[in-house]
Design brief:
With about 130 residues, this protein is an alpha+beta fold. The chain has two domains: about 5-100, MS2 Viral Coat Protein (2-Layer Sandwich), CATH 3.30.380.10; about 100-130. About 20% of the residues lie in helices and about 45% in strands. The termini are far apart.
C-alpha cells in the first residue's frame, strides 16, 4: 500500500489519501482517507476503499471500488459539525481469469481514462447523461 495523491477540482492542488488499512485478505477492503480535508471529524472526511475477491465459480476476480465524499456544516452557535449529505460512488467489475493480460491492461486503462476525460467529468458534474 501507498498514499494516493490526486488533483483537487482546481486541477492544481493535491489531495493526498493516506493509507489506513490494507485489505488483510482476499475479501477485505483496503482503506485510504483524505486526512487533510477540513472536516473536523474522521466520519466526515472523504474515503476510498478497494477490494477484490473471486466470483462464485472462481473464473474471474471481482473488483470493488467505493468512494464517498461527505458534505458537512458547522453550527455557528454550538461549533458542532454534522453531515449534510454524502456523494457515494461504487464501481464494480469482473476480470476473467482466461483473458490475456494485455487485454486486461487495455480495458482498465481505457475505462479509467474515459472517466478522467474532461467532457465525461463535466457530464457527471451536471448529473445528466449527454
Amino acid at each position: 500500500m501507498t498514499d494516493l495523491t490526486v488533483k483537487k477540482n482546481d486541477g492544481t492542488t493535491d489531495a493526498i489519501y493516506i493509507q489506513k488499512t490494507n485489505a488483510g485478505g482476499d475479501t477485505g477492503q483496503a482503506l485510504w482517507r483524505y486526512d487533510a480535508h477540513a472536516a473536523p471529524y474522521i466520519g466526515l472526511k472523504p474515503e476510498f476503499r478497494f477490494g477484490t475477491k473471486f466470483n462464485g465459480p472462481r473464473t474471474a476476480r471481482r473488483v470493488m471500488l467505493q468512494y464517498v465524499y461527505r458534505s458537512y456544516a458547522t453550527d455557528s452557535t454550538t461549533g458542532v459539525s454534522s453531515l449534510v449529505g454524502a456523494i457515494p460512488w461504487t464501481i464494480t467489475g469482473a476480470i476473467p481469469l482466461n483473458v490475456p493480460q494485455a487485454d486486461i491492461d487495455e480495458s482498465i486503462s481505457q475505462m479509467f481514462n474515459l472517466t478522467d476525460h474532461a467532457t465525461f467529468q463535466a457530464w457527471l458534474k451536471t448529473g445528466y447523461a449527454p
